[in-house]
Amino acid sequence: MPNINLYYFATLFVLSIAIMMTEPFLKFLTIQINFLTYWLMSSLILTGITFLLRIFMTGFFVENTEFAGLSLSFVEINGFVLNPILTILVFSVTSGIISTLFYILEKSD
After folding, report:
1. Are the CB atoms for 96 and 43 separated by under 8 Å?
2. pTM score
3. What is the distance between the alpha carbons of residues 40 and 9, in angstroms, rounded to a whole number?
4. Which UniProt keywords apply (predicted)?
5. Second label for 100, Cα 20 to 30 Å away, from 18, 44, 59, 94?
């Protein structure tokens, strides 16, 4: 996330608008809205918006992400490094799942 407060709030605003565009975009394409379609569309939109932010927004940098590794009694995961593209994809998929869960919980009223 950007260090300058104005860029930070602008980034959050743009990403929240991207999430809010998911449902109208699915309705425009006449695709039935369920967990899978909402998750895929929000992940695609977030990926595209994050790439655009990376290119055009000053102060928004996506760097390598390091995973140090995990060792449990029954499984061991070695450490690895994600390049910026994979970092954006992991961020988008994770944010898409979270927003989809909130959308599905809201619709279940």
Report:
1. yes
2. 0.83
3. 25
4. Membrane, Transmembrane, Transmembrane helix
5. 59
Cβ neighbours of residue 30 closer than 8 Å, sequence gap 6 or more = none
Cα 30 to Cα 22: distance, rounded to the nearest angstrom: 12
The closest alpha carbon to 101, from 51, 36, 30, 17, belongs to 36
DSSP structure class, residue 67: E
**At 63, which amino acid appears?**
E
Instruction: Please state the rounded mean pLDDT for residues 29-57.
Output: 92
pLDDT single digits (tens) 67-81: 888 888 888 888 888
Quote the number of domains for the chain. Answer: 1
Query: Domain span at residue 9?
Result: 5-107
